[in-house]
Amino acid sequence: MGPAVRVPTDGFGLAIANLQEFSHIAALGHIGLALAGSLASMVSLVALTALLPRVNIELDIHSLRVGFAKTLVASAVMGAGLMALQSALSTSRIAIVLLSVPLGVALFAGTASLLRLREVRTLYEFAVDSMRGGK
After folding, report:
1. In the chain, where the domains are located
2. Which of 16, 52, 123, 135 could be a cystine partner for 57, CB 3.0 to 4.6 Å?
3. CA distance 103 to 106
């Protein structure tokens, strides 16, 4: 019979449930979870881009595109570095787990800093202010 499934009562929820049933995202495991999160973020960005001008909030689309491109490059560098780590340490799962998170953070933050991604600078300034007991 299988596990119990909660059926949404609204039309949007029902559409999502039907999409999930036919998409096989669950079969992808944690990769499917990451994919679903990325897709949800993209849908949210498109929806907000369409809706915000209606409430008199204008977005700087050029800045968003530049930030997206820089983030994409930093993510690609991080992914390549983590794939290299995994192939170099293919025999030790514990080493991969212990090293992958700090390496991923260092590669992403380092690349994003080199590309002068505004969000990384803002995060750094926030961290420094917080450590000093500031604002």
Report:
1. 1-58, 60-135
2. 52
3. 5
Contact (Cβ atoms closer than 8 angstroms) between residue 85 and residue 97 = no
Q: What is the pTM of this model?
A: 0.59
CA angle at 5 for the pair 3 and 11, rounded to the nearest 5° = 165
In contact, 109 and 127? CB cutoff 8 Å: no
Instruction: Encode 81-114: b = buried (16+ Cβ within 10 Å), e = exposed.
Output: bbeebeeebeeeeeebeebeeebbeebbbebbee
Four-CA torsion 35, 116, 101, 123, nearest 10 degrees: -100
Of 10, 107, 115, residue with least CA distance to 66 = 115
9 — phi, psi (to 5°)? -100, -15
119-133 pLDDT, tens digit per residue, is: 888 888 898 888 888
